[in-house]
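Weekly structure sync, notes
Attendees: PL (lead), two postdocs, one rotation student
Agenda item 3: pending single-chain targets
PL asked that the sequence for the first pending target be pasted directly into the notes so everyone works from the same version. It is reproduced below exactly as submitted, 229 residues in total.
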Amino acid sequence: MIVRFDNVGLAYEIGAESLKDVRFTLNEGEFRFLTGPSGAGKTTFLKLIYLALRPTRGRMTLFGQDVTDAERDMLPPLRRRIGVVFQEFRLLDHLTAFENVALPMKVAGVNQQQYREDVRELLNWVGLGSRMDALPQTLSGGEKQRVALARALVSKPDLILADEPTGNVDPQMGEKIMKLFVELNKLGAAVIVATHDLQLVQALGKRTMRLDGGRLYEDPPMRASGRMR
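Predicted structure, written out during the meeting:
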């Protein structure tokens, strides 16, 4: 089991909860879409999973460990097993595209010789092979998104969380990104993709869950449209 929520609630301040009584289990090798209107709590839900937030009630388990009240020194090894594609990119402006992608490996103490080719291959795959030395301020929004994607995947994580990963790229690149997620899922990574793009959801026909009013609902899988076959 990768993630489990038992009656999880989260309130940013005293008063109304952003998430209410969420029950959820994600097993090894599963692929889920997360949908819902703006403000429904999708980003908050993902932040709980990658331990940027803690629930204000209920219990949360990650990779078999109860992390609801876990000490801080327990969290870094768990976070390193998660690749996150943030909506706001979070690139470091003083680092090149190559250095931004390589950062998780560098922080983990991996020798550059061991990850150099993986970083180059990922940047080539997302169409940025010629921009490896570019700084973020010289990149377009779509290029920044692709750097962020490569950074999330370079460590070959057990769990991939993507918050609107196709929101800043053209449809062709969006399909390419989703195909990469599908391939990584086939290799064993569990995947959760938060998106507003219902055409994208239908194209893949994966299991879908929906947040509405802070509550999580399981929707039946849409029949794959064949758009990405």
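Discussion points:
- The first strand starts at residue 3 and ends at 10.
- Residues 171-186 form the longest helix (16 residues).
Action: rotation student to compare against the earlier draft before next sync.
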